[in-house]
């Protein structure tokens, strides 16, 4: 699989590392010239390359958006039509500025991205785990200490594709429901960054 990454920060870089380990190809981008990612691409090896965001969106079979929320409207729309898009973003008003519809609870971060990408299949995932934990807490399938990560989305097939990827990366998956339910594991909730098994995660989500 080719995985496009729009964003090359801590989460994006570690997802790229997991993807390469899983045997996938990655196309990674940031807000600057692709040449600024030369060191990361060299570390990742021959199955990685840098591109502009439009290139990552175009070439990726599945695309991860992992940028500051305030920049979500810069995500290319047309190249992502029909594609599964993983949203890792969280809302931090001190960084992103206040967004009235989020402050009032009228919408959620992933619903904002879905509205921006009306013909894409957005799935909320990887926003409830510290970047370092993506590497340090990944475990083989069947390990009794394996961590469970939540996802949310409106398209069942898209969620299944993302769940398969997360499983391959080293985590169990719990489907928290439609995209709106992503608020239950955003920053500030009991489930956020919680190292939990399935039962523990379910209890934490109820309090979200």
UniProtKB/TrEMBL annotation:
Keywords: Oxidoreductase. Residues 2-91 form the Pyrroline-5-carboxylate reductase catalytic N-terminal domain. Pfam families: F420_oxidored (PF03807). It comes from the Bacteria. SUPFAM superfamilies: NAD(P)-binding Rossmann-fold domains. GO terms for molecular function: oxidoreductase activity. This is NADP oxidoreductase coenzyme F420-dependent. It comes from Lentilactobacillus kisonensis F0435. The lineage of its organism: Bacteria, Bacillati, Bacillota, Bacilli, Lactobacillales.
């Amino acid at each position: 699989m080719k995985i496009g990454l729009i964003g090359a920060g801590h989460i994006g870089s570690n997802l790229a590392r997991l993807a390469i380990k899983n045997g996938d190809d990655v196309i990674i981008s940031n807000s600057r010239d692709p040449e600024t990612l030369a060191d990361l691409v060299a570390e990742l090896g021959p199955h990685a390359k840098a591109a502009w965001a439009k290139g990552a969106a175009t070439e990726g079979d599945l695309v991860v958006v992992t940028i500051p929320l305030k920049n979500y409207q810069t995500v290319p729309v047309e190249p992502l039509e029909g594609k599964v898009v993983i949203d890792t973003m969280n809302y931090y008003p001190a960084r992103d500025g206040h967004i009235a519809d989020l402050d009032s609870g009228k919408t959620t971060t992933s619903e904002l991205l879905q509205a921006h990408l009306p013909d894409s299949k957005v799935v909320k995932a990887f926003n409830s785990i510290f970047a370092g934990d993506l590497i340090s807490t990944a475990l083989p399938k069947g390990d009794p200490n394996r961590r469970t990560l939540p996802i949310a989305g409106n398209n069942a097939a898209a969620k299944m594709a993302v769940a398969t990827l997360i499983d391959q990366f080293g985590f169990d998956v719990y489907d928290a429901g439609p995209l709106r339910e992503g608020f239950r594991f955003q920053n500030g909730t009991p489930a956020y960054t919680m190292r939990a098994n399935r039962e523990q995660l379910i209890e934490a989500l109820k309090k979200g």
